Amino acid sequence: MSSQILENASTAGNVAWSPRSPAERVLMALKMHGALSSAELGSKLSTTGEAARQQLARLAEEGLVQSASEARGVGRPTQRWSLTPAAQSRFPDTHAALTVQLLDIVRTSLGEAALDTLIAVREADTRTAYQSAVPDHLPLRDKVAALAELRSAEGYMAAWSEEPDGTLVLIENHCPICAAATACQGFCRAELDVFRSILGPEAHIERSEHIVSGGRRCTYAIRKSDA
After folding, report:
1. Beta bridge partners of 207
2. For 21-62, what is each residue's pLDDT tens digit?
3. How far is 215 from 167, CA to CA, in rounded Å?
4. What predicted TM-score, i.e. pTM, was given to this entire model?
């Protein structure tokens, strides 16, 4: 069974990807939830732990998943499975090589100022689009929910949750512009500025995990400002 997720990556654009084969569903579950045991994975996929283990074994042979033992109290250690770096290429990264090449051309031919202008224009366009979709009068909680929905539609596999202390957490399990963001982290700065603009002055937002810095995902803690 093939676990190739994106047969037509070059035409994927911003369309959200949905897994179809069992192997794709396994990869998606590990992408969204992090390391899981085969039993936990089976539960999330509404199948048995043994069926999940068989899929994991196939994906391990392809170098897409890896396991590590985790001791939890008395008894045998639990084997937990996670994605390998090679698996990241199976998720949308829109026209990565071309994007990086174009950024290098802009930087070397036109200079850093031109690259800053490019990022600023993208930031302004994104802000305008988000402002039309997230009304300013919404409560902060609803703004975060709407922002997560927008980001998911763009391929970020986003979700949000609320902590017991009231902190809202925006989670992006994937970065479809990771290659560009790695080549120029101005994109990450600009996106954070857009979030602050959309959520408004009532919100204090802080990035606590960052894919470009080696994190499994990007995570943003959002709290009401004291002011």
Report:
1. 220
2. 888 889 989 988 888 999 999 999 999 999 999 999 999 998
3. 20
4. 0.66
Nearest to 31 by CA among 220, 224, 226, 216: 216
pLDDT tens per residue across span 132-173: 999 999 999 999 999 999 999 898 999 999 999 999 999 999
- Is the domain of 144 the same as that of 194? yes
- Residue 101's pLDDT is 83
Give me the domain span that covers residue 84. 9-90
Give, for 65, the enclosing helix (H) or strand (E): strand 65-70
149 and 206 co-located in one domain: yes
Distance CA 17, CA 12 (A): 8
Q: Given CA atoms 167, 173, 174, 178 in this order, what sign does their dihedral have?
A: positive
Query: Mutual orientation of helices 186-199 and 112-133 as an angle, nearest 10°?
Result: 30
In angstroms, the CA 78 to CA 222 distance is 34
101 and 76, same domain (yes or no): no
Asked if residues 168 and 28 have their Cβ atoms less than 8 Å apart, the reply is no
Per the CB < 8 A criterion, the answer to whether 17 and 92 are in contact is yes
Q: How far apart are CA 34 and CA 66, in angstroms?
A: 12
Contacts 24+ apart (CB under 8 A), 34-42: 34/82, 34/216, 35/68, 35/80, 35/81, 35/82, 36/80, 36/81, 36/82, 37/78, 37/79, 37/80, 37/81, 38/79, 38/81, 41/81
Q: Find, among 200, 9, 183, the residue nearest to 88 by Cα.
A: 9
Structure-token pair, residue 39: 């039993």
Task: Establish if 83 belongs to a structural domain.
Answer: yes
